């Protein structure tokens, strides 16, 4: 609605600026041109035959219309400048109105202020997990909303048609939600479960190797070079603890 009102305001101010810019640009009336020509011919008829100047000081020849002598000072047209100034003023007014609208929407409470341009958008509440284009104007979008996962079909808008989104499937079971989140984040290498499982496996291997030695006086620790390069943080911590006990 605000964009529509701004467009109407722009068109109205442009329409007001155009007539003022077009003033004084039209051609000279025909009657005035004919009167100037008749006066010029009458003055030329009163000159003597010899071409000299007339003795009567009141009789002075009038320059012909269109001759270089009749051309007065050329005044540049200011229509373009007025149009540009009006356009700049309208643009500044639109930007000021948009800024004021955002400020008022953010400061005022209620549903209109929350849904408007100044509404809150906290991060982490809604997350786009994946999107799959299926046609020129359609795509499947996987959304996470709190503890739910939604599969939606989004149709892009065209001229005169707004965009639309339809929910195809909704997952609320914790196991299904965890499976979808795990698959979505494995692609970016953010799987915490896999890294934790790998650390546990490395720790178990280290404990199995430690049990193979004699627990009596002849016990020998595993060299640090064998595990510090490939083992995880948990295995390296266990190794440091074991070496501290031996010391």
Structural class: alpha+beta
Helix % is 40-55%
Q: Please give the alpha-carbon distance between the first and last residues.
A: 78 Å
- The order of strands across the largest sheet is 1-2-3-4
- How many strands appear in the DSSP assignment? 4
- Arithmetic mean of pLDDT: 68
Report on this structure:
It is a single chain. Helices cover 49% and strands 13% of the residues. α1 (2-21) packs antiparallel against α3 (79-107) and α6 (192-211) packs parallel to α8. 2% of the residues are buried. It has a 4-stranded antiparallel beta sheet. The protein is of the alpha+beta class. The radius of gyration is 44 Å and the shape is elongated. The two termini are 78 Å apart. The protein has helices at 2-21, 30-45, 79-107, 111-115, 174-186, 192-211, 224-227, 233-246, and strands spanning 126-133, 138-145, 148-155, 164-171. Among the domains are: 1-23 and 79-99; 126-186, no CATH class; 192-246.
Attribute tags:
alpha+beta, 247 residues, elongated, four-stranded antiparallel β-sheet
Which secondary structure elements does this structure contain, and how are they paired or packed?
Elements: H1 2-21, H2 30-45, H3 79-107, H4 111-115, E1 126-133, E2 138-145, E3 148-155, E4 164-171, H5 174-186, H6 192-211, H7 224-227, H8 233-246
Antiparallel strand pairs: 1-2, 2-3, 3-4
